[in-house]
Amino acid sequence: MTFEFLEQAKSGDRRSLARTLSALENRSIQIEEVLDIIGPVPTSANDDWQTLAITGAPGVGKSCLLDGLLRNWAQRGLRIAVLAVDPSSPRTGGALLGDRVRMTVVDDVGLNDLIYLRSVATRKASGSVPVIVEDMTKVLLALGWQRVVIETVGAGQSEVRCAALADRIVVVEGPARGDGIQAEKAGLLELADAVLVNKSDLPGAEIHADEIRESFELGAGNTPPVLLTSAIQGNGISEAAELLLTLLSSGRSTRARWRERLLAFHERKILESPQLDELLEKLAKGSILLDEALQIIGGESNE
Amino acid sequence: MPPTTMSEPWRIVVAKPGLDGHDRGAKVVARALRDAGNEVIYTGLRRSAQQIVDTVRDEDARFLGLSSLSGAHEHLFPKVCELLKLQGLNDVIVFAGGIIPLGDREPLYACGIRAIFGPGTPTSEILEFIEQATQMDNNGVGQDSDWHWTSAT
Q1: With contacts defined as CB-CB under 8 Å, which chain B residues touch A79?
Q2: Which of A44, A265, A297, B26 could lock onto B67 through a cystine, CB 3.0 to 4.6 A?
Q3: Which domains are present in chain B?
Q4: CB contact, 8 Å: B74 with chain A?
């Protein structure tokens, strides 16, 4: 099988780029094969991030906010790719991917050459989305997109794992999302390198920002910056864009992130095992024990 | 048959070209396509032909569904088809829906649109179309098939 589209993707054809990402998603091509042709992933100059995750609960305004940030970054001449990850229905495997509705920057003829937006569904059978997203990220960077932003709902394991793969994690919060204790117990905040409290035009945003700051100060290490934004009114967007562009790692979550990565790769090993179906069948019938199944899968992938 | 865990879901862009602001139909279709196991990318309202084609290109969609209730289909749908061909997106399968009078349909089929669904079409019919359209590999907008779906509506 020849992969002509890889050569075309290398020469800047966006259709072929889209095809390459689909091929990775469908597992009809391996990341190594792609990079062999399009060239290696460049390393980052100084300490700038190459991948940034934007995550937070549904409805806090991630897409709107990102639209504003992208516009700002593109106006500086940066080439940015976005992978907007949305959940697939666990029942049917289908997905409704609606991030483009709010991402109007891709319609801006002056800027849309600098922005590539791709919607990614988590897909039913694939707990390995985070790994695929990482592969896609590599391809985008290798093709000269300077920064890759991964937008994902911060609920559900695979979404959190997608975020954990990025160099930096930005958590978007909204006003009136519960008291200070809610901010404490939200696991996502522990991974944050910065927090944007969006919808600052609504009451409660400032109080919530204070609660998050307070919660950060109780912990050890650098405290991540907490900013107020209003995507709909455009308040705080240019400040946030400036700050995020040179955002440093808070260093608080390095271990937690490696943990998520480790789990993601481990899960992929299991899900991609050629014997998975057979083992599930046998487990369901009770003809083998869980321990035995684990041994078979483990033995497979060690070869 | 909806895609199973073994086959990959179809990626389908559902778009609203032009200025009409009625997207209930588009949303019903998007929902039905999703429930059949597809990945549906909805563009939102008031997209230009170029914006729609850019979306199809960047999202690597296999299908494009166009919805119009404003009467501008005669102008907008051929424009979208033309741009798709111009960008080499010849293998994208295009279908349409909304208020498209019977007399307007032949020229749209001639542009490469493979199905036109009127009001009251059961969503199951659209799913059948999707299924059939992929049986042959020359049903894309810029390919040589002269097949099109004959809708009861």
Answers
A1: none
A2: B26
A3: 11-133 (3.40.50.280)
A4: no
| Closest chain B CA to residue A9 | B58
Best residue in B35, B41, B85, B86 to probe A by mutation, most A CBs within 10 Å? B41
Rounded to the nearest 10°, the torsion over CA B31, B108, B90, B38 is 10
Q: Which structural domain range is residue A267 located in?
A: 261-302
Say yes or no: A51 and A32 in one domain.
Answer: no
**Based on the domain organization, do A204 and A120 belong to the same domain?**
yes
Predicted confidence (pLDDT) per residue in A68-90, tens digit: 999 999 999 999 999 998 888 77
Determine the pLDDT at residue B2: 39
Q: Are residues A168 and A121 in the same domain?
A: yes
Cβ count near B62 (within 10 Å): 22
Three-state SS across B56-85?
Answer: HHHHCCCEEEEEECCCCHHHHHHHHHHHHH
Mean pLDDT, chain B, whole residue set: 89
- Cα Dmax for chain B: 42
Reference B96, options B70, B117, B126; nearest CA is B117
Identify whether residues A192 and A273 lie together within a single domain: no
* Number of domains comprising chain A: 3
Looking at the structure, do residues A48 and A5 belong to the same domain, yes or no? no
Q: Is the pLDDT of residue B102 over 50?
A: yes
Other beta carbons within 10 Å of A234: 11
Which residue from B30, B37, B54 is facing A92, i.e. has the nearest CB?
B37
Q: What is the DSSP letter of A66?
A: H
- d(Cα A189, Cα A193) in Å, to the nearest integer? 9
User: Are residues A184 and A269 both part of a single domain?
Assistant: no
Contact state of B36 with A92 under an 8 Å Cβ cutoff: yes
